[in-house]
Amino acid sequence: FDQRDGFIWLDGKLVPWADAKLHVLSHALHYGSAVFEGERLYDGEIFKLTEHSERLHKSAEILDFQVPYSVEEIDAACREVCEANGLINGYVRPIAWRGSEQMGVSAQNNSIHLAIAAWEWGSYFDPAARLKGIRMKFAKYRRPDPATAPVRSKAAGLYMICTIEKHGAEREGYADALMLDWRGYVAEGTGANIFLIKDGVLHTPNPDCFLDGITRRTVIDLAKKRGYEVIERHIKPEELADFSECFITGTAAEVTPVSEIGEYRFEVGDITKTLMEDYINLVQPQRAAAVAAAG
Ligand code: PMP
Prior knowledge:
Layout: E1 7-10, E2 13-16, H1 27-31, E3 34-36, E4 39-42, E5 45-46, H2 49-62, H3 71-84, E6 90-98, E7 112-119, H4 127-132, E8 134-143, H5 160-171, E9 176-181, E10 186-188, E11 193-198, E12 201-205, H6 214-225, E13 229-233, E14 245-250, E15 254-261, E16 264-265, H7 270-283, H8 285-293
Helix pairs in contact: 2-3, 7-8
């Protein structure tokens, strides 16, 4: 992935893709002091760009550092890197981290860097599996207590357990893993929030120890516009037996139906289909029209 054509925005300049490097003594590599964003570019526009740039700022502040560019500058840089790479649809990845001036836990003298890359990226899950619903297993690791980790930050270090769980799931033929939280309630996938449906009502976990995703909030708004009731509450894993539909949401995952979590089964039902369509209609009306035309 590091040897491609194209450009990456690095500390204020566009540099050739293969030259966007950092030193092995970067604090971020040793101590996890990096925060990032994941954004999608749809038909030339980055969806909810400013919300992402603001979240990047907030994520850094939670880790006790400041991104040395304003939200407006980050917005402009994200657009610039998409343009420089000739992208109309794609994925945008800003990342901010502590540099290599000082080695040790303390990072008072380390510079803060910002890089933004963008590339073409289709469906996060296999498109066919996506329509049938993806299969998930239960993860072993749990989302940590907010007293244990900076759970409100989209911090690189918090993904360590997500990668372990994603690998564990993939090894057994599953698409993703469902993580519980430290209390044992249903939390989220390794890179997406979760919704469950019964009797026409959507239930989703309280985001009190994991990311309150931008897609999650968008889908809650879309559901309410449709007149569906949405309940945010603690959900016990054994309650999964009561739900008929399930889907996950995220910038990369968009709205992806789930057919299976552990011993529980779900159908790709009307509410899930409606919200998948509403989401595509919102972010990329041209794709929605193409899907409709194809039947
Ligand atoms: N949870 C985790 C762990 C994630 O990585 C993501 C993706 N950023 C989400 C939830 C969903 O967030 P968003 O909708 O803002 O992409």
